[in-house]
Design goal:
Elements lengths: L2 H18 L4 H11 L8 H12 L8
Helix pairs in contact: 1-2, 1-3, 2-3
């Protein structure tokens, strides 16, 4: 993965975190899967972990 790919992933996670903070995990997971690039290489288990963080109001992107 390249730096630009990483930056894109962080921006997507940050954007979803801003819009879906506090929402149920399945809702956040759906949003992440809809917005992540198809070839992002992010595993479903990682998407769930990220969604759990966003669901409780955290922004795991670090941005």
């Amino acid at each position: 993965m390249h730096d630009t790919d990483d930056a894109t992933l962080f921006r997507v996670v940050h954007g979803v975190a801003g819009r879906f903070a506090g929402q149920p995990v399945p809702v956040v997971m759906e949003a992440l899967m809809r917005h992540l690039p198809p070839a992002s290489g992010v595993e479903v288990t990682d998407i769930r972990r990220i969604a759990e963080e966003i669901s409780v109001g955290r922004d795991p992107s670090g941005l």
